[in-house]
């Protein structure tokens, strides 16, 4: 009887562990919760300077997290420390978990800008040639429309200064900060008007 109860308990434990593992166990959702403190629930950042990551492309998120972990992106000390605390597999799982969420456009107020001049600027530099589908991007090319404006400007200014190496973004060296402000406002608002 005792032996039967012991075997039954073992079967129950193994079945429970198997079900827990099949359901994801200690998965990306649990690991990704550490991101919510800054990036908001499900990656829908409410702030001006922290990017929306929910609904962003998994390939892009993984690329950025691995670059942060490898200290190849000078974005922030906080993100470098956060990314370095995870394995590459965990970073990939986190990226996929957030990519599976619904994109929530930034609600932060944007600066006024000249619409026709800004549209011409974006067309001249062919922003939507890479960030296809009106700025939604794909693969390793991020969605930029509806993104938090302070974050978007910060990243564009880093590309302009050469702090983030990229041949594709080298054109920003010739774009003024006033033009970048207008582009950011337009791109943030464009996401709201999808």
What's the CATH H-level homologous superfamily? Cytochrome c-like domain
Can you give the mean pLDDT?
86
CATH topology: Cytochrome Bc1 Complex, Chain D, domain 2
**Residue fraction in strands:** under 5%
Helix content: 55-70%
- Distance from N terminus to C terminus (CA atoms, Å) equals 66 Å
Number of helices: 10
CATH class descriptor name: Mainly Alpha
What is the structural class? mainly alpha
What is the 3D shape? globular
Unreliable runs, pLDDT <50, ≥5 residues? Answer: 5-24
Count of strand segments: 0
Question: Which key features would you list for this structure?
Answer:
0% strand, mainly alpha, Cytochrome Bc1 Complex, Chain D, domain 2, 194 residues, single chain
In short:
Helices cover 58% and strands 0% of the residues. With 194 residues, it is mostly helical.
Describe this structure in words.
Helix 6 packs across helix 10. The longest helix is centred in the N-terminal third of the chain and has 21 residues. The radius of gyration is 21 Å and the shape is globular. It has 194 residues and is mainly α. Helices cover 58% and strands 0% of the residues.
List the helices and strands and how they pair.
Elements: H1 2-22, H2 28-39, H3 58-69, H4 77-84, H5 88-99, H6 115-124, H7 127-130, H8 132-135, H9 149-161, H10 177-192
Helix pairs in contact: 2-5, 3-4, 3-5, 6-10, 9-10
């Amino acid at each position: 009887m005792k032996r039967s109860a012991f075997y039954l308990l073992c079967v129950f434990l193994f079945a429970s562990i198997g079900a827990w593992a099949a359901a994801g166990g200690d998965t990306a959702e649990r690991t990704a919760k550490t991101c919510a403190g800054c990036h908001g629930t499900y990656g829908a950042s409410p702030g001006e300077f922290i990017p929306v990551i929910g609904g962003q492309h998994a390939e892009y998120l993984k690329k950025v997290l691995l670059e942060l972990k490898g200290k190849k992106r000078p974005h922030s000390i906080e993100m470098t420390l956060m990314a370095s605390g995870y394995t590459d597999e965990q970073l990939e799982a986190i990226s996929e978990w957030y990519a599976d969420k619904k994109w929530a456009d930034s609600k932060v107020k944007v600066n006024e800008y000249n619409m026709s001049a800004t549209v011409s600027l974006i067309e001249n530099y062919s922003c939507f040639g890479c960030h296809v589908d009106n700025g939604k991007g794909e693969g390793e090319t991020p969605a930029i429309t509806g993104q938090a404006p302070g974050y978007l400007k910060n990243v564009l200014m880093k590309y302009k200064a050469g702090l983030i190496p990229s041949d594709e973004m080298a054109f920003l060296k010739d774009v003024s900060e006033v033009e970048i402000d207008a582009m950011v406002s337009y791109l943030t608002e464009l996401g709201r008007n999808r």
